[in-house]
Write a structure and sequence with these properties.
Helices cover about 35% and strands about 25% of the residues. With about 300 residues, the chain is α+β, with helices and mostly antiparallel strands.
């Protein structure tokens, strides 16, 4: 089979700045998204797997301080960086995820290792960190994740929340890909919700909630994780495509707007089908995303993202 190769990535959804995004910030986000999507697409073009492409693109986003994943992870209420990630191979239906990790430089690579090198699907906390170290993955001191801008962000938010009781912010990165063999894969990585408490874990590492792939579609989500868990958003989109033959756009819109948004949640999804059709939808004020499909020019969307 010689399927049309395709990859779509996202860098989170929501409201980031109160005012319009400064031009230099917009350019930085565009450059990071473009480099990440091109990295994954190059792997697909050379005949690599969808899983490899997803991992490669997400690793680049994890290594950037711009996004809430890996290096740019936000802080918990305890002043810690606790990272989650998941990956799923639609061809084999195998999946792996890690949650609450503190020393793994690239959680998406750890998630892939769980999928391919263990009999498990999800590992958490110190156990996930230990598995990654034993597997030869790159381990870093927790100080690696301490970016001054993020640290100031948590201090400011704590002051604001004491005054207003307002909810914390969230963000995620993810990718979905289709390789030449017609296989799909999805992956997602996050630092979780800013100022999260009590070891909170969102939808990202929960297979079927924030991440899902089968032989028909691949989905990665971003947003208010509790709603994406309750409505098993990623799997629900895939099921509508599988059992009701809805298009990527129809299925994504039905679940995101008619279920999650009506229930009070907010966020975004990227969805890809086995023919290379894609959807990138959000119910928030904006979403970062980029795509490369069937040798068409790279598309990058950051302009409607407002930062708070």
């Amino acid at each position: 089979m010689n399927a049309p190769i395709a990859i779509v990535i996202h860098g989170g959804s929501g409201r980031l700045y109160k005012e319009e995004m400064p031009p230099e910030k917009e350019e930085a986000y565009k450059s990071a998204l473009t480099a990440a999507v091109q990295e994954g697409y190059a792997i697909l073009k050379e005949g690599g797997t969808a899983v490899a492409a997803v991992e490669a693109s997400i690793r680049m986003l994890e290594d950037s301080p711009l996004f809430n994943a890996g290096k740019g992870a936000v802080f918990s209420s305890d002043g810690l960086n606790e990272l989650d990630a998941a990956i799923m191979d639609g061809k084999t239906m195998k999946a792996g995820s890690v949650a609450g990790t503190r020393t793994i430089r690239n959680p998406i690579t750890a998630a892939r290792a769980v999928m391919e090198q263990s009999e498990h699907v999800m590992l958490t906390g110190a156990g996930a960190d230990g598995f990654a170290a034993a597997s030869g993955l790159q381990i870093v001191d927790p100080s690696y994740f301490k970016i001054e801008e993020r640290w100031e962000q948590i201090q400011q938010l704590k002051q604001q929340e004491q005054a207003s009781g307002k909810q914390s912010k969230y963000g995620t990165v993810g990718a979905v890909a289709l390789d030449r063999s017609g296989s799909l894969a999805a992956g997602t990585s996050t630092g979780g919700m800013l100022n999260k408490k009590w070891g909170r874990i969102g939808d990202t590492p929960v297979i079927g909630a924030g991440t899902y792939a089968n032989q028909i579609s691949a989905v990665s989500c971003t947003g208010y994780g509790e709603f994406f868990i309750r409505y098993t958003v990623a799997r629900d989109i895939a099921a509508l495509m599988e059992y009701k033959n809805l298009s990527v756009e129809e299925a994504s819109r039905e679940v995101l707007f008619n279920k999650v948004t009506r229930a009070g949640g907010a966020g975004g999804v990227i969805t890809l089908d086995v023919k290379g059709n894609m959807a990138a939808l959000h119910s928030t004020e904006g979403m970062f995303w980029a795509s490369m499909i069937k040798d068409n020019p790279c598309q990058v969307n950051v302009c409607n993202m407002i930062i708070e």
